[in-house]
Specification:
heterodimer; A: alpha/beta; 7 helices; B: alpha/beta; Rossmann fold; 6-stranded mixed sheet; two-stranded antiparallel sheet; 6 helices; globular
């Protein structure tokens, strides 16, 4: 049994993110299993030496840490990369305790969960290089279908597979065991058919632009190079 | 043809910056018009994930810092080369931060299929050649393989495939490093 688990939310959107929604649900499931849960947010941390130190101390000392973040340009968001780099730089003054475990949950706005696999592999590599035991990860696509900052429980049947995967994961994590294969498979099942997701996704961009009064400017090219004849 | 070289050397990694300069010279010899941008000298904040560059100020990031200039340079480039330390198989934070700031406004919000996967259309309609020079303390096949996989995934964002890469090691001779840089410039092809 792991007494305390650290959840690290690596979305730049902080509490208004899908990663936060997932962390809240996972944290609730862990608490139900009598595990103490602490959640840290990396958003805005680079401007706060106190928060940086808290993160570095916590990562070194926590028996089990779960990173939850969105895919940004096919990788970890830069705030996560920076946090890992800074932590590694401080290893000499803040050594990693023994028997430390690591897991990660990566989500993306594309329908294919597989687009997250390389980012998850970076986390696995981090664990291997820095001496954490890797407990595995979950990757989910269609993140745009999850209300950011809202409760996963309120999504009803659409998120049933996702909740089940996180329930299973919580059981394993609470025991300090690797994430089960069933959770990996369940979380990769799309929340809705890809065509429907893409339809509503595209509609959402038009809706957002309409609300901002820029519907006709969505395809603007503010940095278009001058035509060759105009170049000197 | 313009080539944007993002020099992601952190403080104390001057040898990597030197390699970026060699690369610029090699590309110039092949007819490119290279621009080497030393990222550590810029003020670039991380992407906030607000998507305002898609739905409020199309093509422009909300943050008024050097990240906007990076998008402008990318929008007018024919090639983008990332010069970065390899961190756990991924890019260093300087290149990663600059890339996520430059790329999102460079794309359109809608979904499209690229090589069998969903991605975003190119705002400026032009494909960009992508390449990378990764630096490690010593050879590390696992990290290098992951780095190439990520580069390949990034290339899909530019609607391209098979981006060339080269790796430099801390224990390498200067002549060997220069050879690898020249080979990367060759693999990126000449400017037509």
């Amino acid at each position: 049994m792991i007494p305390e688990i650290l959840l690290v939310v690596g979305s730049p959107r902080g509490r208004k993110s899908v990663s936060h929604t997932l962390a809240e649900y996972l944290g609730g499931q862990l608490r139900d299993r009598k595990v103490s849960v602490r959640t840290l947010y990396l958003a805005g941390m680079r401007n706060s030496p106190e928060r940086q130190k808290e993160f570095q101390d916590s990562l070194s000392r926590s028996g089990l840490t779960v990173f939850l973040f969105p895919l940004y340009a096919d990788q970890l968001p830069s705030i996560v990369v920076e946090a890992l780099e800074d932590w590694a730089d401080q290893r000499s003054v803040n050594p990693l305790g023994s028997d430390r475990k690591l897991a990660a949950v990566v989500n993306c706005g594309f329908p294919e969960a597989g687009q997250n696999d390389a980012a998850l592999a970076v986390m696995e590599r981090f664990a291997a290089v820095e001496g954490f035991e890797w407990l595995g990860g979950l990757t989910l696509g269609g993140g745009g279908g999850i209300p950011p900052g809202d409760s996963l429980s309120r999504m009803g049947g659409m998120a049933a597979n996702l909740r089940w995967a996180l329930d299973l994961s919580a059981i394993s994590l609470a025991a300090g065991l690797p994430l089960p294969g069933e959770a990996w498979q369940a979380v990769r099942k799309p929340l809705m058919p890809a065509w429907l997701y893409l339809f509503f996704g595209n509609l959402g961009w038009y809706w957002g632009a309409w609300k901002s009064g820029v519907l006709t400017r969505l395809r603007d090219k503010p940095y278009e190079a001058p035509a060759p004849s105009a170049r000197k | 043809m313009k080539a944007l070289i993002l020099d992601g050397a952190a403080r104390g990694e001057d040898s990597l910056s030197r390699c970026a300069t060699w690369l610029a010279l090699e590309m110039e010899n092949r007819g490119w018009d290279p621009v080497q941008v030393r990222l550590r000298d810029l003020k670039v904040g991380p992407c906030n994930g607000c998507f305002h560059c898609w739905t409020r100020t199309p093509g422009l990031c909300d943050q008024d810092d050097d990240g906007r200039e990076l998008t402008r340079q990318l929008a007018q480039a024919d090639a983008l080369v990332l010069v970065t330390p390899v961190r756990y198989g991924g890019y260093g934070s300087l290149v990663k931060r600059s890339l996520e700031r430059a790329v999102l406004p460079f794309l359109l919000p809608f979904f499209t299929e690229v090589h069998g996967e969903v991605h975003h259309p190119l705002r400026y309609g032009r494909k960009v050649r992508l390449g990378a020079l990764g630096c490690l303390p010593k050879a590390d096949p696992e990290s290098e393989s992951l780095f190439q996989k990520i580069l390949q995934r990034n290339a899909l964002n530019f609607h391209a495939t098979n981006p060339p890469s080269a790796f430099l090691y801390g224990d390498q001779s200067q002549a060997e490093a220069q050879g690898r840089v020249a080979a990367l410039a060759g693999a990126l092809g000449g400017a037509e």
